[in-house]
Design goal:
Structural class: alpha+beta
Oligomer: single chain
Helix content: 25-40%
Mean pLDDT: 89
Radius of gyration: 23 Å
Strand content: 25-35%
Low-confidence stretches: none
Length: 487
Amino acid sequence: MDTDVLVVGAGPVGLALACALLQHGLTVRVVDKAARPATTSRANFVHARGSEVLDRLDALGDLPQESVRAMTITTYAGNRPMMKIRFGDPGLGTAAPPMVISQARVEATLRERLAELGGRPEWGSALVEVEQDADGVTATLGDGRTVRASWLVGCDGTGSTVRKLAGIGFPGVKISERFLLVDGRLDGDPPLGRSGTSGWAHPDGVLGAMPMPGDQWRLLAYDATFRDDKPSQEEIADRMRRILPARTGLTGLRLHDVTWASLFSVHRRLADTYRAGRILLAGDAAHVHAPFGGQGMLTGLGDAENLAWKLALVTRGLAAERLLDTYQAERRPLATAVLRGSSAATKVNIAGSPFGRFLRDQVLMRVFSRPWIQRWTTYTTSQLWVSYRRGPLGGRGGKPRPGDRVGDLTCERLDGSRTRLHAELRGTWAVLGDDTEDHFEVARRRLGDRVVRLRTAGPTLLVRPDGHLACKGSPADLAHWLGGALG
């Protein structure tokens, strides 16, 4: 084999997967058809769950310091505020903050971490053909080179070549007409200034303005009347300049120094399966949905972390291949829920009928102004609530239940030094509790040397590398769970 895993796509999901696999001790190659890394911002919000994944990859870097802490969204009708939502820590024990930061910076930090782990993306390396057999996958690249790998993972976006070559269906529907997306500078500030996102409900469509690092702004506007199929960046920016004062009522706002502009329609699609033999999908290659709520990159990062530890155990011969089936069983239901939620948010935001606008502007706006609804919104979009308790590796009992996320607990190492649980979960399982020596030996026998022993009050827990509870109880309980999960 040339490598244990071939990752196709050097976006945030592919880079995160590669980093995680290297943490687990596998060999990885990352190929991408692009000639060089993207520099445009694209996705620009990382919720707390995404920050946790980056933290466990040791790939947060300076992103929290670079990010904009604009955690308030206020929606206006003209100059009248109608709804305010405040984001933040939903009180679920995380040391990783939500961040307004461009996807380009997230990718750059992941590439730096990948280099520290000994990897690098191979740019200008398009996948053109795939053949698989019982032992591995042979991938042919555009320049004629072949790569032999035990596994191949497609992290190559909505138009995934991997998905197409694997013959995996990608059914779905179109949800909306066109949105304009522009990054640039503004003369004059929206009502919130740079302390939060401002949005305007308008009969012609919604418009939003989000502050970005470096005095940049992200502008988004629904514009079903814009019919040019392939407009230039400047044409999109000019259209946004006309829309901006008309929908906000703010004649002093001036858009200039545009760094990126895009036109897109919202689709909802979900792959029929996440696995075809030795080929797997993650991120937008497996699911695509509306950008409302900032769930795209977030869900993809979760896919990568979930898949990595399972691929590692199977590849190292510590688990049966059927463990990989739990990847889809745990992650696809979440993607289904995200698709439904983002589609509903899109339909509300683009409401065109008088009744639809009344429902949005007079009913939903007032409901979402209630504090408990705001807390629920923060909780939901953070994805810190995600649990696999109903999946094949989950279980019942008192909280936390097998499959639940375990908070970033304060722990002690055996030498008495203090640490955080999630800081120890870097390609590593954790056994934590008061008296864990026997539990630790059971875990080591099945999981190898990638297990850490920590002290904390409470029941003894075995925590997965992705921060979810594997099991709790006696050494016999741990042995039983490991036997059932790993085969």
